[in-house]
From TrEMBL, chain A:
Entry protein name: Electron transfer flavoprotein subunit beta
Pfam family of the protein (one): ETF
Gene3D superfamilies per UniProt: HUPs
Xref: InterPro entries: ETF_a/b_N, ETF_b, ETF_beta_N, Rossmann-like_a/b/a_fold
Automatic annotation (TrEMBL), chain B:
One Gene Ontology molecular-function label: flavin adenine dinucleotide binding
Domain of life: Bacteria
Domain Electron transfer flavoprotein alpha/beta-subunit N-terminal positions: 4-186
SMART domains on file: ETF
Lineage per the UniProt record: Bacteria, Pseudomonadati, Pseudomonadota, Gammaproteobacteria, Lysobacterales
Cofactor(s) this protein cannot do without: FAD
Function noted in UniProt: The electron transfer flavoprotein serves as a specific electron acceptor for other dehydrogenases. It transfers the electrons to the main respiratory chain via ETF-ubiquinone oxidoreductase (ETF dehydrogenase).
Family, per entry: Belongs to the ETF alpha-subunit/FixB family.
The species this protein was found in: Luteimonas terrae
Matching InterPro entries: DHS-like_NAD/FAD-binding_dom, ETF_a/b_N, ETF_a/FixB, ETF_alpha_N, ETF_asu_C, ETF_asu_C_CS, Rossmann-like_a/b/a_fold
Protein name: Electron transfer flavoprotein subunit alpha
Length: 248, 315
């Protein structure tokens, strides 16, 4: 079977985000970009399914500006068979991303699509669910375990109440939570090998996607800071401080 | 003129009253003409009766269907989309229930969802966090489309109780898929205060060291009548189950008192506790970032401090 992995490039999770003083955006010039951590987990899961012989081919896809080729090369170096780059200069919203991924799904006919549960830039947590909806296929979000057998996926999901297990018919959409796996490190020889792997580049306009960026962002601001607190010396002082605040 | 449909969250027919009442509070901030609450369940009667007591609710729509026994997003989504006509806004809490479900509704209605709604600035203008809460954006939804949003519950106080809205049985006409089957739910122990609605929370991190050691965190929490939480590192190490995780990818909480024990204070953890009333940090490293946001900090070895605290409290 074939697995399609959505592999977004985002500001690295270690970067301290700064809001521009004029409220027009966040500072992204010269900031380190990396694969969305949840998407690395998605790719790792796909590769493990291929290692187990469950999947034959893993395709990574991104919707990003022209300079995202190096990002896709990383996905290939991790082990994906092929990459698809939908070249799109502007940032898009989840519904547009889902519609674009649906076009790739129609073209590639995967048995499984794995996405991150959320992109850590917009923190939207929408695209996978929207793709499943538009595709008319099952979704299993926030996965911490995925098993494939007999045309079905059994997925354990991290939900507020604990761990939920769903069985879904394939093809299906799965979104990853952090504990699904630990992504492998890329090794130098793999970077060399990745150079000769196929990468398809498709201009966004060629897919005929009706853009659906319905939300207008009008202002960015830094979150309100908490005031500096006090330090106490020992347990007795701590209890006294809590009592003074009326908390005990 | 706004009319809001709030999707109630429940587990096996028992209303998640806190999350639902906070979502109603966010809806009230729109000063709408009406707020209706919809309960989808196999037997919605108990949850609907409970939802009817939330102040500000005009009526409760109870949608009974065996297919609604579990909250399967692709099953509930088409029903909500069908029910949504006639409403300007559809809100659900930004719990794993709402996060899983509402993008399905949004996709069916052809809109993007406003995720983690923090404030209402106008009937179609909202603030929400991005980059793990390191930036807050103001977003505006178009006038001619339904607003679909998940409500960041930590940003809202529960709407009061004491209402008595009528409960109506509703039927919806929607084709429901059969491609998804619920297998089971492994729930953690439920005899402790609920992490998401508790007034006091005590969390342990990697510094606690082991599952065995976590006992002292639980004991201290019991002393305070607090719920127990954890950092991702503590969950990953297997000290406690996943549903206790606090932070960007765990639960976003706003207790009156939060005590972080052996937690360094990574940005992804702090995201989950920004709205706490008072943050107390106990850490043996005086340079731990948690002290930058703690209201009360104590540098010390948790294995020494916790017994002392218990002794002091016990007096
Ligand atoms: C995409 C993404 C999402 C994430 N989401 C979350 C999330 O939702 N929640 C979350 O918590 N993390 C999350 N993380 C992980 C986060 O970055 C940190 O790795 C994690 O919070 C660290 O947990 P910790 O503070 O328990 O461990 P550490 O950083 O290892 O800190 C342990 C602390 O314990 C102290 N300590 C050790 N022994 C003692 C002792 N005897 N007495 C007192 N203090 C002691 C140490 O001084 C240290 O400060 C996420 C990471 C990523 C990349
Ligand atoms: N531009 C994009 N390119 C590739 N994948 C994307 C893109 N946008 C969203 N995704 C996928 O959708 C997931 C959820 O994104 P979001 O809904 O924005 O939080 C991400 O983890 C990716 O797997």
């Amino acid at each position: 079977m074939k697995i399609l992995v959505a592999y977004k490039r985002v500001v690295d999770y270690n970067v301290r985000i700064q809001v521009k003083p004029d409220g027009s955006g966040v500072v992204t010039d010269g900031v380190k970009l990396s694969a969305n951590p949840f998407d690395e987990i998605a790719l790792e899961e796909a590769l493990r399914l291929r290692d187990k012989g469950v999947a034959a081919e893993v395709v990574v896809a991104t919707i990003a500006p022209g300079d995202a080729q190096a990002h896709l090369r990383n996905g290939l170096a991790m082990g994906a068979n092929r990459a698809i780059h939908v070249v799109c200069d502007a940032a898009i919203q989840p519904l547009t991303a889902a519609r674009t991924l649906l076009k790739l799904v129609e073209k590639e006919q995967p048995d499984l699509v794995i996405l991150g549960k959320q992109a850590i830039d917009d923190d939207a947590n929408q695209t996978g669910q929207m793709l499943a909806t538009l595709w008319g296929r099952p979704q299993a979000t926030f996965a911490s375990k995925v098993e494939i057998a007999d045309g079905k996926a059994t997925v354990t999901r991290e939900v507020d109440a604990g761990l939920e297990t769903l069985e879904v018919d394939l093809p299906a959409v799965v979104t990853t939570d952090l504990r699904l796996n630990e992504p492998r490190f890329i090794k130098l020889p793999d970077i060399m090998k990745a150079k000769s792997k196929p990468m398809e580049s498709i201009p966004f306009a060629d897919l005929g996607v009706e853009s659906a960026d319905t939300l207008r962002t009008t202002h960015f601001e830094a979150p309100t800071k908490r005031g500096k607190g006090v330090m106490v010396k020992d347990a007795a002082e701590l209890v006294a401080a809590l009592k003074a605040k009326g908390l005990l | 003129m706004s009319k809001v449909l709030v999707i109630a969250e429940h587990l096996d027919g028992v209303l998640n009253a806190s999350a639902t009442a906070k979502t109603v509070a966010a809806a009230q901030a729109l000063s709408p003409d009406a707020i209706d609450v919809a309960v989808f369940a196999a037997d919605p009667s108990a949850a609907a009766a409970d939802a009817a007591t939330i102040a500000g609710v005009a009526k409760v729509l109870a949608v009974a269907n065996p297919a609604n026994a579990q909250a399967l997003a692709q099953v509930l989504g088409p029903q909500i989309a069908a029910l949504a006509s006639g409403y300007s806004h559809v809100f659900a809490p930004s719990t794993t229930f709402g996060k899983d479900l509402m993008p399905v509704v949004a996709a069916l209605l052809g809109v993007n969802q406003v995720s983690d709604l923090m404030t209402v600035e106008g009937s179609r203008v909202f603030k929400r966090p991005i980059y793990a809460g390191n930036a807050i954006v103001t977003v505006e939804a178009p006038a001619d489309q339904t607003v679909v949003a998940t409500v960041r519950t930590a940003s809202w106080q529960e709407s009061a109780r004491g209402g008595s809205a009528p409960v109506e049985t509703a039927t919806v006409d929607a084709a429901l898929p059969v491609h998804t089957r619920f297998v089971g739910l492994a729930a953690g122990s439920t005899d402790r205060p609920d992490l998401q609605s508790a007034k006091r929370v005590v969390s342990g991190g990697r510094g606690v060291g082991s599952e065995e050691n976590f006992k002292i965190v639980f004991e201290f929490a019991d002393k305070l009548g607090a719920a127990v939480g954890a950092s991702r590192a503590a969950v990953d190490a297997g000290y406690v189950p996943n549903e206790l995780q606090v932070g960007q990818t765990g639960k976003i909480i706003a207790p009156e008192l939060y005590v972080a024990i052996g937690i360094s204070g990574a940005i992804q953890h702090l995201t989950g506790i920004k709205d706490a009333g008072t943050i107390v940090a106990i850490n043996k490293d005086a340079d731990a970032p948690i002290f930058e946001i703690a209201d009360i900090g104590l540098v010390g070895d948790l294995f020494k401090v916790l017994p002392e605290l218990e002794a002091t409290l016990g007096e």
